[in-house]
Design brief:
392 residues; alpha+beta; seven-stranded mixed beta sheet; two-stranded antiparallel ribbon; 52% helix; 15% strand; binds flavin-adenine dinucleotide; AcylCo_DH-like_C; flavoprotein; transit peptide
Length: 392
């Protein structure tokens, strides 16, 4: 028997260091996360605080960033780590993505030296948690419509507004909040603000009743006359392109990550099909089953090759936003299709938390939607192909 990776000779494309990182994260995921994941998912919880220092010790928080206690790993190595985490659950990878690719990246890219020194080492170590508040109740795909405002009052800033669907929001020590800042110019522009937990007027309420990403903490943030000092603004943030650049980083992790969930589903389906007997022989020995498995293996392997190609481009500093969109759309769309197809192979057992497939499929509904929905990425690719902007 060969794995999909072996079928596509993928390990041969990785350096020794990349294989080591992948194997280290896989071991941690197998020993520390996998035994508990079904229980966390069922309870709708995630021990982010408890796990963050362990993830920090492995160098997974802000892994691709340089300095300030961050690992400074390659983009490809970061992608491979995301894949191993998401093979356990998209919720785990989401926690790591939001901490490193969104909150820490925003501070690293746009923060002052003091802000970087204050927050990044603790965040890299997993002692401090961050979240990234861009989406609002009425504005997700179109964040430029956001209503959250920051106005000056003397030297201070005063923020009002609300943010929704914010991963890690209820446990974060610091929220990176995006708001239109009125700075006395012609038009307010989007800027990032660092809002420490406990600031008067700032509350984070956990969102319940999710049927997807249950092993992930998601919150609604309220900002009601939140007064911040002048130096709370991220000085390098200038316009909507600033949060969008952070999203591009997180999307890149998803290109690899979603395929981890698909890989786990396929492994579970193959394992099940080899032992489950129907009409007196193993399910795996039926042509219909093999056709499903072969087709899924092709999509998974092609997705892995595309992810690696994009990783190499990113490491050379050559990747474009459209290329990241291409990978995000392909990985999430194929991963959810694979998860659903694997579910059919497991029959009724496929709907049980005793197996990972429907948990992954449900999680992938969120992964398909956040960091730019599948439709938004189709529009990005469509615009690149035609030069015609079909967003409006
Ligand atoms: C579990 C979870 C965690 C999240 N974590 C975060 C977080 O940490 N921080 C954060 O800021 N946000 C977060 N989000 C929010 C996420 O980024 C948004 O849900 C996403 O951007 C989509 O926005 P929306 O839900 O408002 O959908 P909408 O923008 O209302 O879209 C609804 C539908 O319309 C489609 N659509 C939109 N525009 C067009 C168009 N021009 N043409 C055709 N179709 C269109 C969309 O593709 C979608 O199918 C999270 C979401 C989830 C589910």
């Amino acid at each position: 028997m060969v794995t999909v990776e072996e079928l596509f000779a993928i390990p041969a494309l990785l350096s020794e260091e990349e294989r080591e990182i992948r194997d280290t994260v896989a071991r941690f995921a197998r020993q520390r996360l996998r035994p508990h994941i079904a229980e966390w998912f069922e309870a709708g919880t995630f021990p982010a605080r408890e796990l963050a220092p362990e993830l920090g010790r492995l160098g997974l928080l802000g892994m691709h960033l340089d300095g300030y206690g961050c690992a400074g790993a390659s983009a490809t190595a970061y992608g491979l780590a995301c894949q191993e985490l998401e093979a356990v659950d998209s919720g785990v990878r989401s926690m790591v993505s939001v901490q490193g690719s969104l909150a820490m990246t925003a501070i690293h890219k746009y923060g002052s030296e003091e802000q970087k020194q204050q927050w990044l080492p603790g965040m890299a170590a997993g002692e401090l948690l961050g979240c990234f508040g861009l989406t609002e109740p009425d504005f997700g795909s179109n964040p430029g419509g956001m209503r959250t405002r920051a106005v000056r009052d003397g030297d201070d800033w005063v923020l009002d507004g609300s943010k929704m669907w914010i991963t890690n929001g209820s446990v974060a020590d610091v929220a990176v909040v995006w708001a239109y800042a009125d700075e006395g110019g012609d038009r307010p522009r989007v800027r990032g603000f660092l809002v420490p937990a406990g600031t008067p007027g700032f509350t984070a309420r956990e969102m319940r009743h999710k049927l997807s990403l249950r092993a992930s903490l998601t919150a609604e943030l309220s900002l009601d006359g939140v007064r911040l000092p002048a130096d709370a603004v991220l000085p390098g943030s200038r316009g909507l392109s600033s949060p969008l650049a952070c999203l591009s980083e997180a999307r890149f992790g998803i290109v690899f990550g979603a395929l981890g969930a698909a890989r786990d589903c396929l492994a579970a389906a193959i394992d099940y099909a080899r032992t489950r007997e129907v009409f007196d022989k193993p399910l795996a020995a039926y042509q219909l089953t093999q056709a499903k498995l072969a087709d899924m293996a092709l999509e998974l392997g092609k997705g892995q090759l595309l992810a690696l190609h994009l990783g190499r481009l990113k490491d050379r500093g050559e990747i474009t936003a459209e290329q990241i969109s291409t990978g995000k759309l392909n990985s999430t769309r194929e991963a959810i299709a694979i998860a659903r197809e694997c579910r059919t192979i497991l029959g009724a057992n496929g709907i049980s938390l005793d197996y990972p497939v429907l948990r992954h499929a449900n999680n992938l509904e969120s992964v398909l939607t956040y960091e730019g929905t599948a439709e938004v990425h189709q529009l990005v690719i469509g615009k690149a192909l035609t030069d015609a902007d079909a967003f409006r």
